[in-house]
Automatic annotation (TrEMBL):
Domain TGF-beta family profile: 310-434
Family in the record: Belongs to the TGF-beta family.
Protein name: Decapentaplegic
UniProt organism field: Danaus plexippus plexippus
GO cellular component terms, A-Z: extracellular space
């Protein structure tokens, strides 16, 4: 039997699509195709080889990107649900956990500890709440405190001090995009001063050689300032390339306009005093904020893919509007609820925030004809048409995510440094038939 379907509008051109099948069918009128193409062979067309029978199944670059994101989101949801399910043996849970950690770009989970995690720096909390990382192209932020060493005793004053930050835990595939060293103001100081920040390229040897220093930043200090940020990106990039040559930073505070006179009472706090309590000093000590871009984010940027919004409330608003546009029938393709609880997979001890998130998933039928709210592509419309004429020829279009959003996670790494990372394609915003 040979059936013909006519598609056209007004006085425009008419496209005739002929389908050869041995199954009796009922003539139907498909939705209008924006760019009709001879994707279905006619009855008199020359037979093609088996491997060429589905060459019409093509996707544009945008569809491939969406499908990659859909796969990533689906893997997260499936693995978390798998780990949360009861009755799984330890081997299956461990394998699922490894897959999920790999998807998140983590080599392993931080070790279990019975000690409470250290307080999260206020700067990291603000970044998480704002869902934004200031350095361009960066998708990860880490905070580091000074690691005390035996060299600290060589700097008894507050006007000159060496700071050492152990950033050896940063993965080798990450590139530094920004590094800020934040100082807190000292109380009760007056006058204008200047802060000089140096990278210690090579430490000196007492009585033999002077240290080799490279000036990173020079900042005027004013009494009215609350915090002071110095640029340490040059040193951070060198440390990531040459971890063994990380000799720290040298901070020096001078009286403004006095040449090289050291400040007797510096405007910023660089070292702990005997009267400082542990909790108080943690909020006052210098903090290094390192902003990096990992390999996955870099590959996505080089492909020209734009990042979807990181604002969780905006994503929820878009999803709310989509909810009211969708068909009331529950079997139609639509976004469905799925909450991922990190406590269910035993990760609440190292993930600081969020405790869980709404991942959602897509499920439902893609019936013929495809309605506008199902966000079907031309390819999906054609595939649905062919399926309606001959279900044995091709399957129906699939219900998949068409728009995904990222989430930010705040967690502790293996050495208890606080990490803020933005993960793309983790939450379904919209669904459609593709």
């Amino acid at each position: 039997m040979v059936g013909s379907v006519v598609s056209g509008a007004g006085g425009g051109a008419i496209t005739v699509i002929t389908i050869t099948t041995t199954t009796p069918t009922t003539p139907t009128t498909p939705p209008r195709l924006e760019q009709p193409r001879p994707l279905i062979p006619t009855a008199d067309a020359k037979p093609r080889a088996r491997h060429e029978s589905h060459t019409w199944r093509r996707h544009d670059r945008g569809s491939r990107r969406i499908m990659r994101g859909a796969c990533a989101c689906a893997v997260v949801c499936a693995l978390v649900a798998l780990c949360a399910a009861a009755g799984l043996d330890e081997g299956t849970r461990a394998a699922a956990e490894r897959q999920l950690l790999a998807l998140l770009g983590l080599p392993r989970r931080p070790p279990h500890t019975h000690r409470p995690p250290p307080p999260v720096p206020q700067a990291m909390r603000l970044l998480y709440d704002e869902s934004a990382i200031p350095a361009a192209a960066a998708n990860t932020a880490r905070s580091f405190y000074h690691t005390p060493t035996e060299l600290d005793d060589r700097f008894p004053g507050e006007h000159r001090f060496r700071l050492y930050f152990n950033i050896s835990g940063v993965p080798a595939d990450e590139i530094a995009r920004g590094a800020d060293l934040t100082f807190q103001r000292a109380v009760g100081t007056t006058g204008n001063q200047r802060l000089l920040l140096y990278d210690v390229v090579r430490p000196g040897r007492k009585g033999k050689s002077e240290p080799i220093l490279r000036l990173l930043d020079s900042i005027p200090l004013r009494v009215a300032e609350g915090t002071v940020n110095a640029d340490a990106l040059g040193a951070a990039r060198r440390w990531l390339k040459e971890p063994k040559h990380n000799h720290g930073l040298l901070v020096r505070v001078l009286e403004e306009g006095s040449g090289s006179t050291d400040a007797k009472f510096p405007h910023v706090r660089v070292r702990r005093r005997a009267t400082d309590a542990e909790e108080e000093w943690r909020s006052l000590q210098p903090l290094l904020m390192l902003y990096t871009e990992d390999e996955r984010a870099r590959a996505a940027r080089e492909r020209g893919e734009t990042k979807l919004t990181r604002n969780k409330r905006a994503a929820q608003r878009r999803g709310h509007r989509a909810h009211h546009r969708r068909k009331e029938a529950r079997e139609i393709c639509q976004r469905r609820p799925l909450f991922v609880d990190f406590a269910d997979v035993g990760w609440s001890d190292w993930i600081v925030a969020p405790h869980g998130y709404d991942a959602y998933y897509c499920q439902g039928d893609c019936p013929f004809p495809l309605a506008d709210h199902l966000n079907g592509t031309n390819h999906a419309i054609v595939q649905t048409l062919v399926n309606s004429v001959n279900p044995a020829a091709v399957p129906k279009a699939c219900c998949v995510p068409t728009q995904l959003s990222s989430i930010s996670m705040l967690y502790m790494d293996e050495v208890n440094n606080v990490v803020l990372k933005n993960y793309q394609d983790m939450m379904v915003v919209g669904c459609g038939c593709r």
